[in-house]
Specification:
By secondary structure, the protein is an all-alpha fold. It is 54% helix and 3% strand. The chain is built from 8 helices and 2 strands, in the order H-H-E-E-H-H-H-H-H-H. The protein has a two-stranded antiparallel ribbon with strand order 1-2. Strand 1 and strand 2 form a beta hairpin. The longest helix has 15 residues. It is elongated, with a radius of gyration of 24 Å. The model has no long low-confidence stretch (mean pLDDT 77).
Amino acid sequence: MFKDFVKAIQKNLQQMSKDSSRLFTVNVDTEELYNLYLDSFPAGTNEIYRERREYDCSCCRHFIRDVGKIRNHSIGTLLVNISEGMDLDLAVRKYEQIVAPVNYKRPKAIFTKKMLEDAKKTITELGYMDSLQRRFATFKLCSRR
């Protein structure tokens, strides 16, 4: 379940930050945030295994450090909900509602059908229509003669 959760968060973060290195930044010490993460597990679910707690590993540390710069307010909300003792399934559902793709869809298309028709007409009138057709380069086209 946790691996699926991590994959879902990573996928959403990659999609949301594809055009930027960060979405939202706050001044939070990453060590403090990581300790909050470790302390947010309900009693008995993050027990010490040999020397460290079960989720006190480099994978978790890097994930929290990278995400923990709080690049997105939804992650912050998720962490706060978990740290305040909210049921994990409920916290994840609330997180999924915040980052649901439907929240980021455009209400209407960027261009209309008429705009597309007008553009095609203008391109044809200017004689550029044949220039828009592209082909893949072949080795023969790229080699010396």
